[in-house]
Amino acid sequence: MIKRIFLLLFFVLVISQFLRPDKNQGSYDSIATFEAAAEAPVEVKTILQSNCYDCHSNTTRYPWFMEVSPITHWMSYQIDEGKEHFNVSEWDSYTDKQKDHKLEEFIEMIEKKEMPLKPYTWIHGELSGQDAETLVNWAKVVRSGIGKTEETPQTKEGDSLPIKESDTTAIEEVTAEE
Ligand code: HEC
C-alpha cells in the first residue's frame, strides 16, 4: 500500500514538472521608474533586489530550483498574492494616499519580520538587522516627501478636485467667444 502511495506521489511530481505556471518576467523599466520616483540609493536597490522584488514587482529572477515543481507552483502563487498587495512596478499608478499606506505597511512588515516571506528566506537568507534598518529609514524619508515634490495635482479616479468659481467662468468665457 505505502509503496503504491509513493509511486503515485512520484508520478504526480513528474507530471507536475510539465505543468509550468506562467513566468513573471516583465521588463526592468517599471522597477527603474519606481526606484527613480522613490529616490532609492544604491544600497536600498540592492537589498530590495535580493529580498523583495521577486514577489513585489513584474520581474522575478528564476534560478534553476525555481523551475522545479512544487517550488515553482508555490512561488507563482506567492508572486500573484504579493503583487496584489504591493507591486513596485505599478508604483506610478498608486495615488499619494496609497503610496503612503503601502510604505506604512512596508515598514511594519519589516519591523515585525513578516517579510521577506518565510520559506523564501530558507533559500535566500533572512534580512540582516542592518539591511532592515536601512530599508525602514529610507521608507520613512520617502513617506515624509510624498505629495511634496509633485508639481501637477493628482487627477486619478476618486480624487475629486474642488472646482473654483473662477474656473467655470473662464470656461464659459471661452465657449462664449466661439
Ligand atoms: C516569496 C514572496 C515574497 C517575498 C520575497 C516578499 N514578500 Fe511581501 N508579500 C508576499 C505576499 C504573498 C504578501 C501578501 C500576503 C501577506 O500579507 O502575507 C505580501 C505582502 C507584503 C506587503 C503588503 C502587506 C499588506 O498588509 O498589504 C508589503 C508592504 C510587503 N509584502 C513588503 C515586502 C518587503 C519589503 C519584502 C522584502 C524585504 C517582501 N515583502 C518580500 C510575498 C513576498
From TrEMBL:
Compositionally skewed regions (Basic and acidic residues) per UniProt: 148-167
Region named Disordered: 147-178
Domain Haem-binding residues, every copy: 10-143
Protein name: Cytochrome C
Organism: Aquimarina algiphila
InterPro entries assigned to the protein according to its UniProt record, in alphabetical order: Haem-bd (IPR025992)
Domain of life, source organism: Bacteria
